[in-house]
Write a structure and sequence with these properties.
The protein is an alpha/beta fold and 361 residues long. The chain has two domains: 233 residues, NAD(P)-binding Rossmann-like Domain (Rossmann fold); 113 residues, UDP-galactose 4-epimerase, domain 1. It has twelve helices and eleven strands. Strands 3-2-1-4-5-6-10 form a seven-stranded parallel sheet, sandwiched between helices. A two-stranded parallel sheet has the order 7-9. β1, α1 and β2 form a beta-alpha-beta unit. α2 runs parallel beside α4, α6 crosses α8 and α8 crosses α10. The longest helix has 24 residues. The structure holds nicotinamide-adenine-dinucleotide and 2'deoxy-thymidine-5'-diphospho-alpha-D-glucose. Nicotinamide-adenine-dinucleotide binds next to α1, β2, α4 and β5.
């Protein structure tokens, strides 16, 4: 790993990964290709450690010739592919972008890698790697007594987002099988932590609670997710890049599965603790049940024994410690919060998503 192309590095997990890897690896260069959609922001990339080793390029992964050009110009030997449309609710309201970026965009990157790495041979094939970041949602939904998802669970995606990620996983697998492209894939559960765009459950709840706004719980709130602190995800990706077996997929998860309602209550009590003077304490009083997400997956849970046994990775944070760190980060980074809130896309999204559900914002 010397010259690493990171796609989607201005988004939540990608920017955390750049911060993480610049700390951990002292001799690599990062080229960050990101289209700066509503979910990407240069605010996420401020004060990087050793920032002269980071080059930002604004561009679309679907632009095949741009990707090939970057690969040649920067002698890229590793691609870590985060770029995606990532929000399930948006995929329900407008699936087209998800197919374009997640399916066609992944194809465009894979084909550029095939052309430049395998066709032109500018890098020895044993020195290159295409690492694809995917999700547990490709496996569908679990019943209460089902065992957690393992790497061999059949794919059964339920939302346009999940289907587009499943399609991208299949394309990556195909390029390994057919063309011998050196790949690895990780399927990860719900991430949370610094720099997450506040359309997702945890930052949305923190920001709404701080302002005394309703805390919108979809349906009965008894859906279960497997929450992972984002830095733990970054470490797992690093381990796979360093020691993962080529052609393999690894499941990553946080080893905890609260219901949404339990999680939001826990967040509220952390806020009560840190904001004792707030007029909105107890924050739990703002919980509001709203219309459910169509096709809402009931339960996700990850079996992480493969990455634990093969690569000796396990999450460092438990849910309580990760949520504390996250709440503190949002309280202490009001400038970042304000910069996101100032963008019209955020308020437009709140209006569009929550008006339909009973107008809680
Ligand atoms: P995000 O929405 O925060 O960021 C996505 C980034 O990709 C943004 O910076 C955006 O500008 C960029 N992007 C979007 N379309 C692009 C395009 N066509 N060309 C170039 N850049 C483009 O997403 P995230 O939460 O950081 O997720 C990153 C990856 O991890 C995604 O592939 C997602 O499917 C996967 N994932 C996310 C989670 C989670 O809980 N957030 C869990 C498992 C897997
Ligand atoms: O499981 C991994 C996936 O986790 C990633 O692949 C996705 O990119 C990421 O967005 C996330 O998907 P979810 O749909 O699980 O995350 P979200 O934060 O949108 O919702 C988490 C749960 O909370 C889900 O059951 C829906 C519920 N929810 C969400 C919002 C935004 C609410 O009850 N109210 C809300 O306002």
């Amino acid at each position: 790993m010397r010259n690493v192309l990171i796609t989607g590095g201005a988004g939540f997990i990608g920017s955390n990964f750049i911060r993480y890897i610049l700390e951990k690896e002292s001799d690599l260069q990062i080229i960050n290709l990101d289209a700066l959609t509503y979910a990407g922001s240069l605010e996420n990339l401020k004060n990087l450690p050793d920032e002269e080793r980071h080059t930002f390029i604004k561009g679309d992964i679907c632009d095949h010739s741009l990707v090939e050009d970057i690969m040649r110009r920067h002698h890229i030997d590793t691609i870590v592919h985060f770029a995606a449309e990532s929000h399930v609710d948006r995929s329900i309201l407008g699936p087209a972008k998800f197919i374009q970026t997640n399916v066609f965009g992944t194809f465009s990157l894979l084909d550029a890698a095939r052309q430049v790495w395998l066709g032109e041979g500018v890098q020895p094939s044993e020195k290159v790697r295409f690492h694809h970041i995917s999700t547990d949602e490709v496996f569908g939904s679990l019943s209460p007594d089902d065992p957690p998802f393992s790497e061999t669970t059949s794919y059964a995606p339920n939302s346009p987002y999940a289907a587009s990620k499943a399609a991208s996983d299949h394309l990556v697998r195909t390029y390994a099988h057919t063309y011998d492209l050196p790949i690895t894939i990780t399927n990860c559960s719900n991430n949370y932590g610094p720099y997450q765009f506040p359309e997702k459950l945890i930052p949305l709840m923190i920001l709404n609670a701080m302002q005394g706004l309703p805390l919108p719980i979809y349906g009965d709130g008894l859906q279960v997710r497997d929450w992972l602190y984002v830095e733990d995800h970054c470490e797992a990706i690093h381990f796979v890049l360093k020691q993962g077996r080529l052609g393999q997929t690894y499941n990553i998860g946080g080893d905890n599965q609260p219901t949404n309602l339990e999680l939001v209550r826990q967040l509220c009590s952390i806020l009560d603790e840190h904001l004792p003077q707030s007029p909105y304490t107890p924050h739990e009083g703002f919980i509001t049940f709203v219309t459910d997400r169509p096709g809402h997956d009931r339960r996700y849970a990850m079996d992480i024994r493969k990455i634990q046994h093969e690569l000796d990775w396990s999450p460092r944070e438990d849910l309580a410690s990760g949520l504390h760190k996250t709440v503190l980060w949002y309280l202490e980074n009001i400038d970042w919060v304000d910069s996101i809130r100032a963008g019209s896309e955020y308020s437009e999204w709140l209006e569009c998503n929550y008006e339909r559900r009973g107008g809680v914002n």
